[in-house]
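In response to the reviewer comment on reproducibility (Comment 2.3), we provide here a single inverse folding case reported in full, input and output, so that an independent group could reproduce the run without further information from us. The structure tokens appear first.
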């Protein structure tokens, strides 16, 4: 039994060494080629949409961390099992480690952003290192140790030879050799892992430096000042403009791409593009910039969920850039009805050409809240299209725009069961009081936000329990592309109560009470909170 436990330890050390070496090799290749990242990305791609939705709903922006920890946990268990197996079947255990290297290599090479067979190197080299270490450590556990038969007070070895008493053979194992080998392997793996992690972090220094040097020119078309009264002074309500650090992030990138703005290029091509073009970051900076307040919403946002935010975006009008390339919308005879945006990480997002060219402030954004885009929000350039859910409009780290048709190409999310077209639904949310709050009796301010981007909010109503709908006070409107705050003074009486909100947009559409899942085109339903008044 002790040897089986030490075999499990050997497997764990071999797994640790494999990952550490792979991390170091990935620093020379690219961070995205590491086995955990590659397998994690492949897992995301293969996960059914309802499961992804569940993960986002329960783990939020930590879903990627949870996934990677889950992968590491599974690898740890498998490493322990292989170590135990190797005690009795030494070569089989080592071969098992190599097999997982093959899986990691296949995942890395098969990623949409793969640069070729070189992406297999981290997994292959790491697996070879792990397999050799497991083979060597288990060898220490199965070695036959020869010990002299002489002991204090016994005859000397020369005399033993004359009398025929030779050294004895013990069926033990090399304890000292195993401890030294295991300790050395653990220390070396730790050093290699730290070195790999440091080198991977340093690979993005050029991109970080390029972002620091970006100075956004003053927009030729600045955003109008936020109207007085657009932000209500109600404790607990979401701020009108979401701070950059609090803005939601939902994407599939396990490693945030760090793109050097000086080498970044955007290619525009495809069906109906009479003048294909390639733009640099400086090319966009020299163009006429616009600045707009726009609320973005993720299609994975549940009713009352947090994946919605309002920011001030600075960028280039997408319609102008497409027009210069000779693109016409379908309403004017253009042959392409879908714009496919491709990210540096291989993500593809399809937007209706008609929507990005119908006069709304669709843009290639370079700035967010007065600063260059943060890396996690798409630096150096991303798309922003008001009125559409992010999965059909908000491509981050964009590097390619292809004009095509909905019939001829399905982007990433459409292939996984989401709708091709996804205008944002009219929704509202109660920010305060929070669910299960215990306010005192008397006047309690109920407040929150409502949104229907590119249509605007016309009315918000609140209902207490099963009572009548009562009109809430609307804050001043900034634009129809931003959310709108609202408040309602409630005369609360003791007991348990349910507060419900609904909105009506500028087109006269009342927010539906019909509850739907986020898939295929966004959640719907009324948001309610239960409180106990004391």
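Designed residues, in position order:
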């Amino acid at each position: 039994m002790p040897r089986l436990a030490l075999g499990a330890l050997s497997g764990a050390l071999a797994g640790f060494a494999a990952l550490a070496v792979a991390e170091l090799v990935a620093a020379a290749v690219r961070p995205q080629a590491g086995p955990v990242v590659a397998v994690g990305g492949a897992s995301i791609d293969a996960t059914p949409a309802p499961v992804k939705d569940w993960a986002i709903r329960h783990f939020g922006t930590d879903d990627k961390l949870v996934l990677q920890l889950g992968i590491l946990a599974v690898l740890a268990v498998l490493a322990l099992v292989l170590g135990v197996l190797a005690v009795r079947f030494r070569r089989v255990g080592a071969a098992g480690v190599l097999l997982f290297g093959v899986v990691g290599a296949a995942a890395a090479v098969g990623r949409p952003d793969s640069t070729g067979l070189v992406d297999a190197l981290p997994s292959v080299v790491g697996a070879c290192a792990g397999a050799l270490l497991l083979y060597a450590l288990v060898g220490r556990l199965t070695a036959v140790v020869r010990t002299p038969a002489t002991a204090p007070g016994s005859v000397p070895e020369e005399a033993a030879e004359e009398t025929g008493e030779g050294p004895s053979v013990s069926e033990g194992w090399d304890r000292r050799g195993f401890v030294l080998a295991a300790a050395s392997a653990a220390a070396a793996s730790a050093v290699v892992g730290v070195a790999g992690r440091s080198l991977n972090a340093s690979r993005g220094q050029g991109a970080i430096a390029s972002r620091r040097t970006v100075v956004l020119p003053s927009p030729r078309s600045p955003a109008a000042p936020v109207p007085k009264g657009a932000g209500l002074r109600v404790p607990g309500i979401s701020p009108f403009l979401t701070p950059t650090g609090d803005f939601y992030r939902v994407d599939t990138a396990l490693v945030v791409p760090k793109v050097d703005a000086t080498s970044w290029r955007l290619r525009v091509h495809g069906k109906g593009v009479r003048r294909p073009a390639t733009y640099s970051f400086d090319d966009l900076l020299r163009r006429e910039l616009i600045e707009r307040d726009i609320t973005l919403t993720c299609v994975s946002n549940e009713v009352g969920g947090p994946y919605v935010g309002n920011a001030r975006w600075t960028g280039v009008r997408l319609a102008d850039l497409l027009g210069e390339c000779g693109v016409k919308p379908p309403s004017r005879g253009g042959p392409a009805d879908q714009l496919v945006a491709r990210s540096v990480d291989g993500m593809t997002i399809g937007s209706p050409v008609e929507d990005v060219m119908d006069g709304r402030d669709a843009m290639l954004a370079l700035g967010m809240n007065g600063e260059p885009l943060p890396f996690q929000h798409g630096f150096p350039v991303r798309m922003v299209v008001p009125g559409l859910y992010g999965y059909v409009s908000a491509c981050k780290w964009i590097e390619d725009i292809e004009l095509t048709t909905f019939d001829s190409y399905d982007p990433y999310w459409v292939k996984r069961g989401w709708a091709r077209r996804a205008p944002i639904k009219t929704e509202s949310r109660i920010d305060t009081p929070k669910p299960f709050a215990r306010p005192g009796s008397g006047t309690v301010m109920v407040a929150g936000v409502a949104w229907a981007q590119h249509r605007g909010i016309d009315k918000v109503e609140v209902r207490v329990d099963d009572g009548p709908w009562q009109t809430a006070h609307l804050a001043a409107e900034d634009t129809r592309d931003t959310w709108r705050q609202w408040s309602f003074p409630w005369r609360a009486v003791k007991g348990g109560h349910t507060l419900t909100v609904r909105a009506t947009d500028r087109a006269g559409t009342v927010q539906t009470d019909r509850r739907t899942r986020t898939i295929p085109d966004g959640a719907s339903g009324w948001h309610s909170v239960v409180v106990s008044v004391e």
